[in-house]
Amino acid sequence: MITERILKSELAAKVITPAQAAAFFKDKMVVASSGFTKAGDSKAVLTALAERAKLDPLKVTLITGASLGHGTDGILADAHAISLRLPFQVDTIMRRAINSGEVLFIDQHLGETANLLKANNFPKIDIAILEAICIEQDGSIVPTTSVGNSASFAALADKIIIEINTEIPFSLKGVHDIFSPGDYPDRREIPIVNAASRIGQGTIPLDTDKIIGIVFTNIKDSPADIAPQDEVTAVIARHIVDFFTTEVEKGNLTNSLLPLQAGIGKVANAVLRGFLESDFEGLTMYSEVLQDSTFDLLDSGKMTFASGSSITVSSDYYEHIFNDFSIYKDKIVLRPQDISNAAEVIRRLGVIAINTALECDIYGNVNSTHIAGTNMMNGIGGSGDFARNSYLSIFVTQSVAKNETISRIVPMVSHVDHTEHDVDIIVTEHGLADLRGLAPRQRAEVIIEHCAHPDYKAELKSYFDRACARGGHTPHLLEEAFSWYTSLRQHGTMKPVSAEKVEFRA
Amino acid sequence: MITERILKSELAAKVITPAQAAAFFKDKMVVASSGFTKAGDSKAVLTALAERAKLDPLKVTLITGASLGHGTDGILADAHAISLRLPFQVDTIMRRAINSGEVLFIDQHLGETANLLKANNFPKIDIAILEAICIEQDGSIVPTTSVGNSASFAALADKIIIEINTEIPFSLKGVHDIFSPGDYPDRREIPIVNAASRIGQGTIPLDTDKIIGIVFTNIKDSPADIAPQDEVTAVIARHIVDFFTTEVEKGNLTNSLLPLQAGIGKVANAVLRGFLESDFEGLTMYSEVLQDSTFDLLDSGKMTFASGSSITVSSDYYEHIFNDFSIYKDKIVLRPQDISNAAEVIRRLGVIAINTALECDIYGNVNSTHIAGTNMMNGIGGSGDFARNSYLSIFVTQSVAKNETISRIVPMVSHVDHTEHDVDIIVTEHGLADLRGLAPRQRAEVIIEHCAHPDYKAELKSYFDRACARGGHTPHLLEEAFSWYTSLRQHGTMKPVSAEKVEFRA
Ligand SMILES: CC(C)(COP(=O)(O)OP(=O)(O)OC[C@H]1O[C@@H](n2cnc3c(N)ncnc32)[C@H](O)[C@@H]1OP(=O)(O)O)[C@@H](O)C(=O)NCCC(=O)NCCS
Ligand SMILES: CC(C)(COP(=O)(O)OP(=O)(O)OC[C@H]1O[C@@H](n2cnc3c(N)ncnc32)[C@H](O)[C@@H]1OP(=O)(O)O)[C@@H](O)C(=O)NCCC(=O)NCCS
């Protein structure tokens, strides 16, 4: 097995156990790990690091591509092993540690982390842990189910630990396309001209002298949690398909649209499924995460090519895809996240971006990250990279949350991740607001009319009318703009509570 | 004169008066005009249109590159000739009409207007008015002191009126570099690899059959209002020069830094002047507007090349520069604004972006546009194009406004144009906050400590501490976050008013 997976034979001597690898870490180190939306993450070494931290306390900075699987973020947070985390996470325990202030978190555009590291905006990476299928004769590595920031980590880290995952079939080799735009001031173009462009090499080059250990694992990626499609998400998907059908009829787009990007979450997955029942053909994807729905579209023949930075699918799909990956070999490419999310490429290809909002306001500003303006959910992820630079930026959201006590269309969002400039279309189960070419006051009317839940429409309209009476380009009543959150805190609902009830509570 | 300026001789028959040109416009038309930060704008036809509107009411949509000179926006607003305005303006009268709701305004990233027009996000342009030095034999035109969106307008408009400005010397010919990345889905790379790259042609191609009139003018551009440098702006400039000196010492940057961008406003101009007294050499600029300070830097030899979309200078500089433009011919290039502000190029070159904020909050979110979250000032301009994609994004602002009654560092900005992700450094006269690699709670400490005015520091600190006690990744007290604006409305100051005084007023 070792000789099969380590083709540069002198490196075989570096094979160690996860516990031995964990011993390399020291307090205050900056640690980088492969992993992007639960795919291709470190499965053995980070867990061993958490084990060690329980006995021998230490705290490190942890930088990844995006989220980790197997509850690793939670295990590390529970072991109090993390002082600073970036650029994204989706873990309940880690989230709690971040919101309590125990773990500092830097929420970053996923396309920018590599740039910021190269610009010396962070301390140097001490150790990078990179999951790989194998080490080639030239010492370069073949990544697994994600590329994420691994190529940048390999270039920038002082020392490297490789996790060879024997569970990942060799057939995945060739799906990766590793390219670096170079360093300032001599960066060059990223010559991608369509989703299928291959511009780099199949492996991540690295200086094997940096390798301090090689660990073997055989653990699959965590499966994606795919919520079953429900009526609400199906309706949202239909609104979007109808919208594109009309755009094609108008001659604004052809029947193969432009490359699609879809964010994480059940709504985004449902929306992509919606395209299965559409008349579109020859679709392509230029996205971050290739999900179950991507493979449905490829299988159906409706999609011809999908570019991403990771493959994150549910268990059934995992079996299906990796059983015979050769079917997908020429239909998929996995890229570094500074390429999959590059402003340059997203704008050039004219990507159609579909992301999920926690809440939107009446002027079309979007909050993707902060519950009630304060508590971090996951992070902005790639939503900003895509929303800003896309041909069309669509945000989807259910109109309410938590049993209708929360309206996800509010007078003013409690935190802004995407400004109105970067939001073209908002869709809820109640309808689609096409905001293109509209000024703020017009946007408000369309959003309230098409997207708000009926129980909140009158209050939104009242706020907007009273704000307009006071005036301004973007009319607001600042003293009242956040009163819905105060209501929620005090009365458990954003719905107007009758005067009597308020008195009683007070 | 006509034969000198109209080299395609059969077009000479199309020469008309401004009043005749004004007669072409009809109610509800979409009109586009050249002009970027007061340079190269329509001087005769738009004014004639305003005259006509007074007698024969009509309302049009007006799209430009950026702001117009000669009070034209105000003249048009006074004549009630505008229903919708985009993407930027700086006029007192127009601003009032926008904030009252009489004129609808779409505030846009200046790098995106051309993309949005090409993506059919707006109705078709009926008539474009383009200022030119001359019409070449092949029918293409040489723009004047700005390029702005003129090349896109020429391609997209149904009909075209040319304003030949005989005041602009022929020597400016050759300074323009017109390039289009093409149309979806076949857009290609913008092959600029440094500020001085020339990638296109010297003139704007157009279909001369679209020309419905040619008007002659001899009116200079409006001069830039340059506020005299004062102690406050000089101190801000010194903080920035000191910061870069340290970055060079650390080896993060070379002595020629990376290409500079500087926004509009007196602070930005003062900051560029600050580089005159620095030890940096071989500086370049990749910006939008070339201001007085750009020419000082070129004259001093400290700057070797400047790329922009317009030349907007004060009267003295105007004389100096255009008297013998040959000195600058190989040191300057003027580009279309979708190229000067292209995300692709800004990121590739690693531009250092310096823009002005109306206000910043303790977490580093920036408001560039909305006074008290409501009233439009000018527009986001190019600040978002640069802040998002730059190597370093710096925002400068005085710590207070209006006689210290307003703190420009606030608990939560009343409108977000640039999220914390896109803001690396904030500078006021009190100091520089280097936010790179910091999480929100750390950012707050540094911003309050280094940037806030002493009179507001204790209140900011109190807000932050109390918010932290409640918890969260980005601690806020939503019920109090905007109380400073309410104070300002009620008591004329953001400073805490003693209880007694409040009682008295209430
Ligand atoms: C925004 C985001 C959290 C939505 O995820 P989702 O799974 O589709 O959203 P849901 O509607 O199921 O909401 C998730 C949870 O937040 C709660 N929630 C949603 N909106 C809320 C609001 N405005 N206030 C409070 N809670 C809210 C929901 O009730 C739900 O909690 P529950 O499961 O306990 O009921 C997710 O898309 C995200 O993290 N986006 C940012 C990153 C990104 O966009 N990446 C895209 C490129 S990868
Ligand atoms: C933000 C911007 C308006 C600042 O301009 P400036 O001239 O440097 O700013 P000043 O500090 O002189 O402030 C301008 C006015 O706003 C007022 N002001 C500033 N901050 C304020 C605040 N927070 N609340 C209320 N008024 C404020 C000032 O008092 C001043 O008014 P006055 O002249 O009547 O006293 C200007 O830079 C801008 O429009 N930026 C957005 C576009 C942009 O950044 N383009 C960059 C690429 S071109």
TrEMBL record, chains A, B:
Q: Does Cell membrane count among this protein's keywords?
A: no
Q: Its GO biological process terms? A: acetate metabolic process; acetyl-CoA metabolic process
Report the superkingdom from the record. Bacteria
Residue ranges annotated for the Acetyl-CoA hydrolase/transferase N-terminal domain, each copy included: 9-215
Q: Which Pfam families match?
A: AcetylCoA_hyd_C (PF13336), AcetylCoA_hydro (PF02550)
Q: Which InterPro entries does the record cross-reference, listed alphabetically? A: AcetylCoA_hyd_C, AcetylCoA_hyd_C_sf, ActCoA_hydro, ActCoA_hydro_N, NagB/RpiA_transferase-like, Succinate_CoA_transferase
Gene Ontology MF term list: acetate CoA-transferase activity; acetyl-CoA hydrolase activity
**Catalytic-site annotation from UniProt:** 288 (5-glutamyl coenzyme a thioester intermediate)
Query: Which keywords does the record carry?
Result: Hydrolase
- The entry's CoA-binding residues are 263-267, 378, 382, 402
User: Which residue ranges does the record assign to the Acetyl-CoA hydrolase/transferase C-terminal domain?
Assistant: 327-463
Query: NCBIfam families, from UniProt?
Result: YgfH_subfam
Name the family: Belongs to the acetyl-CoA hydrolase/transferase family.
What is the protein named? Answer: Acetyl-CoA hydrolase
Q: Which organism is it from?
A: Pedobacter antarcticus 4BY
